[in-house]
Design a protein that fits this description.
The longest helix has 30 residues. The strands form three sheets. The protein has a four-stranded mixed beta sheet with strand order 1-4-5-8, with helices on one face. A four-stranded antiparallel beta sheet has the order 2-3-7-6, with no helix packed on it. A two-stranded antiparallel ribbon has the order 9-10. 52% of the residues lie in helices and 14% in strands. The chain is an alpha+beta fold. The protein starts with a helix and ends in an 8-residue tail after the last helix. It is globular, with a radius of gyration of 21 Å. 45% of the residues are buried. The protein folds into three domains: 115 residues, Acyl-CoA dehydrogenase/oxidase, N-terminal domain (Butyryl-Coa Dehydrogenase, subunit A, domain 1, Orthogonal Bundle), CATH 1.10.540; 106 residues, Butyryl-CoA Dehydrogenase, subunit A, domain 2, CATH 2.40.110; 132 residues, Butyryl-CoA Dehydrogenase, subunit A, domain 3 (Up-down Bundle), CATH 1.20.140. The structure holds flavin-adenine dinucleotide (FAD).
Length: 383
């Protein structure tokens, strides 16, 4: 894909920010701490990057999905977890507010996202509602001009450090479980919210949490989208959400290839660089093929979504493919680096741990295959 001079400039400035603020070792350091680098997040926002994808009238820099993808790609090369934190606000919140929020909500929240004042997270999953997400039970009951929320949410990334959560609740029981779902923007400092960290093997900097809601009062004005239509609202932004897995995986895949090539060309065994062994050359040739496909898919889909094309099927296919390609790349990268790749001093082990979530989160590989199979008509009732 051809980028405009402005898009190239954006890419260079995000890359320069990441090189200065997230040097080698930075991602590993915050991963081990299990904490997000919030001061860096604020400097990122101060540089104007959180405003990418937000119209100027709401304090943003303008730009659309291509520009947001450029930001996520460059950030994720340096630190995948940081890109995922940004994605929660830039795609889930900012995208949701722009696509199905009210004008009052856009004016209330978008400038805060652009300035870094408001950090968002997203909460759909529950202990008994994972892949079957619309089986959710967290309940919101109207009481005057407020709703009272009770329930438990699971796997909520970044909830301990975010200011707001986009919360999926059930506001009515309907014959179809995807009906009766309502999204709220909930202030995470509200009384009645208890956040318990969950230890994970990857994505540790943004943190994963269980969040319990006990009689939490939320203004009715904080309903995002239409009451009872959360499923449809979610669908409206789903393509952009799933698409984001492409730039977020492309960045680390490129970093894996570069690091593994550098290592293969310098590490000597049997009197020569291991990169001179054909076995190693072929492994890295395969990663290079995957990186090339990932690049083509990412920018082709970015262009098509920006042009308003419906590409839900292609986005599901691409999400499925890239999450598995990222696992292959990190597995191979570690194999090439031998024991060093397995140590905590190496980036490769972090790529490998982070990669594992890709085929589980945001619709597992099995769920993507179900969606694809349905769309291509396999298994349908004979007519
Ligand atoms: C680190 C981490 C961070 C997360 N962050 C968030 C977040 O911020 N917000 C949020 O809402 N959620 C988040 N999630 C939840 C994530 O989206 C779910 O883990 C995911 O949807 C899968 O649900 P589950 O873990 O309950 O697995 P289950 O749904 O129990 O699935 C278990 C296995 O069964 C398979 N399976 C289930 N149903 C089918 C089927 N119909 N056909 C074939 N196979 C099937 C699955 O593919 C999987 O292999 C996060 C998860 C993790 C691990």
């Amino acid at each position: 894909m051809e980028f405009t001079p402005e898009q190239e400039m954006l890419r260079e400035s995000v890359r320069a920010f990441a090189a200065k603020e997230m040097p080698d070792g930075f991602a590993r350091e915050w991963d081990i701490k299990g904490e997000p680098p919030l001061e860096t997040y604020q400097r990122f926002a101060d540089a104007g990057f959180m405003g990418v994808g937000i119209p100027e009238q709401y304090g943003g820099q303008g730009g659309g999905i291509v520009e947001v993808a450029i930001v996520l790609h460059e950030l994720s090369r340096a630190m995948m977890s940081f890109a995922i934190m940004v994605y929660r606000s830039a795609i889930h919140a900012s995208g949701g507010l722009q696509i199905y929020g009210t004008e009052e909500q856009r004016e209330r929240f978008l400038p805060g996202i652009a300035s870094g004042q408001y950090k968002f997270c997203f909460s759909l999953s529950e202990p008994d509602a994972g892949s079957d997400a619309f089986n959710l039970k967290c309940r919101a009951v109207r009481d005057g001009d407020q709703y009272v929320v009770n329930g438990t949410k699971m796997w909520n990334s970044f909830a301990r450090h975010a200011d707001y959560v986009l919360l999926a609740t059930r506001t009515s029981d309907e014959p179809k479980k995807q009906d009766g779902i309502t999204f709220f923007v909930v202030d995470l400092s509200s009384p009645g919210i208890e956040i318990t960290p969950v230890e994970t093997i990857g994505e540790r900097a943004s943190g994963t949490n269980m969040v319990a809601y006990t009689d939490v009062r939320v203004p009715a004005a904080n309903i995002l989208g239409t009451e009872g239509q959360g499923h449809r609202n979610l669908q409206a932004n789903l393509e952009r959400e799933r698409f984001s897995s492409l730039p977020i995986n492309l960045g680390p895949m490129e970093a894996i290839l570069e690091e593994a090539i550098e290592y293969a060309n310098t590490r000597e065994q049997f009197g020569q660089a291991i990169g001179r062994f054909q076995a190693i050359q072929h492994m890295l040739a395969d990663v290079a093929v995957d990186v090339n496909i990932a690049r083509t898919l990412t920018w082709d889909l970015a262009r098509r979504i920006a042009a308003g094309e419906q590409c839900a099927l292609e986005v599901s296919m691409a999400k499925l493919w890239i999450s598995e390609a990222m696992m292959r790349a990190s597995y191979t990268g570690m194999q090439v680096m031998g024991g060093y790749g397995y140590t905590l001093d190496s980036n490769m082990q972090l790529h490998w741990r982070n990669a594992r979530l890709g085929t589980i989160g945001a619709g597992s590989s099995e769920i993507q295959r179900n969606i694809i199979a349905r769309q291509i008509g396999v298994g349908r009732n004979p007519s």
